[in-house]
Amino acid sequence: MTKEHDYDAVRAEIKKILPQPGYDAGSSGPVLVRLAWHCSGTYDKTTNTGGSNGATMRYAIEANDPANAGLEHAREFLEPVKSKFPWISYGDLWTLAGVVALEEMGGPRVEWRGGRLDHTDDSNVPPNGRLPDASQGCPHLRDVFYRMNFSDQEIVALSGAHTLGQCHPDRSGFDGPWVRNPIRFSNTYFKLLLAETWTPKINVAGNLQFRDDDDEIMMLPTDMALLDDPKFVKWVKIYAEDKERFFKDFAGVFGKLIELGVQREEGGNVVKRGMDSGDKSVWVEGAERKTEVRDLDKEGPKAKL
Asked: Which residue ranges does the record annotate as region Disordered (predicted)?
């Protein structure tokens, strides 16, 4: 038995589920990073809604957002970890899994703090449509990321996550990896974006994407848009040349991303409106999580998806 809030033990267990023979390139790492990103990227600074606190992707409204297609695999990979450590919230588990996976794939260590709670019903699920649409261009990228209070430099840094994983026609409508080793974090995405000749093609799902001359890797319209804007391409070139700078900036912006919507008092305590019958202050080192509407832990994984 591990004691509550032993996050090192959770980290160790997450590492065990990273190898997944038969799934993509044999690793759950990229999809765990995507889960952490998508459960956080619903934040809206104007209304102070969305974000990882609440773990609202457990509910059908958000789980069925087309932008989240395929993330059921990531959530399922993590269920054995949740079962072993029932005290950890899904918000904490999903974001911690992302930073552990990133580091295990050769990426930088991202600062992570616990204390998130899970919403007890779907009344606080943010609306669909807040995540990026890969078929769009620069105005769309700025609309999405400015809403979360990111700068142009941070938009490009976060785009570097495309060095991991691959697209699937039955999920995103796009097909293929961005790099030839999609389970190793690096600045290769930026190098390839600048160096390769990218030919526009219509894929099997009927969507426009861009392929290299060997037809092994691809880029999305949102990736190519980074080359069309002087403020964006400036950072593409910097990160292509300076791996250490990219790793440093990515660690900072990914850490910022997973904290969006997590309101902390002095000392790191988490405050979440609407989590119980009113505002609730939750200490990082642990607080009882009360369920007023449904006990999702007892109802099982399907109730959370």
From this structure: 113-133
